[in-house]
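Q: Sequence in, structure out?
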Amino acid sequence: MIRVIVTEDSSFMRSAITSLIEAEPDIRVVATARDGKEALQKAKEHDADVMTLDVEMPRLDGLSALKELMRTNPMPVLMVSSLTEAGAETTLKALEYGALDYILKALGGDNTAFGKELRSKIRLLARKKAITRLKYRRLYNIPAEKVTVPQPQQPANYVQTPLVGPRELVVIGVSTGGPPVVQKILSALPANLRACILVAQHMPASFTGPFAKRLDGVCAISVSEAKDGDKLINGHAYICPGGKHIGLRMNGPLPEIFVSEEPRKALYKPTVNILMETAGQYMGYKTLGVMLTGMGSDGCEGAMTLREKGGCLIAQSEASCVVYGMPKAVIDARLANQILDADDIAQAIITTVRG
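A: Exactly. Output:
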């Protein structure tokens, strides 16, 4: 049984979220809180597996409550965010402060899809309870308790091969749990990196602009939201706008970036498959692919093309992923040259680009 604390200042929203969480028997709401102070108290009283946390609340807001929670009683946190730009900026800060994921408030007439997504995210985050506690107890020197952390299974008989360079293009595919990892990697790259970076992050359209702006402020490289027709520039990272796809096409003898709503029926927007496939087609051996944390297998088919055309690929390790789905898919397909912890990926990019 997964035990959840719901934190929301609106009584209607608390009731609605609680009902949606408990629509299936494996998840139970053990407590609700009306503000951040109450949430911290409920966390002390209940051994919960996940907390849902609203941002705007009286007495103690979501960000302040999150910081204190990670210092005193760390657990996986799912932020409940609005679609506004302000909501996006706050949510991105929350992910930096320790929240593992977010969900957009989408309560209306038919809440079936919202409820399904909510329960799915809670189940995924509950698996990270032990490692979250261990990480933040070590960070804040909290007296250790006996915590059993599941050991990730190493792929059987997986042969890792060198990341041969130089490479002129880095393409990154990422989903659930991605923003803090992308920030960790990009902020560790030097301004004079002799490669361009394209990022396909599964993220709402209202989030990608603030995400790019936030990254640009903390990175030595420059970062912007991609536009159709952008040129490949060394030391620059382009974030695909939410709700669209990003990839490469040829403009005469040179490749350029395309941003498009097609294919409109794609399951994900952006689709990592399109980014990986077109990078392989038009840049081939000049490309380094990176597959980061995320649910599902988006990007695996495109990675096949990337590798067939001479590109190489890094997959994030299970131990450092929030969700070990997209990296696992390319590892299971024997497409990854290297399997690396998130902390080691930036240096691998630098070394491979330099050659």
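DSSP finds twelve helices and 14 strands in the chain.
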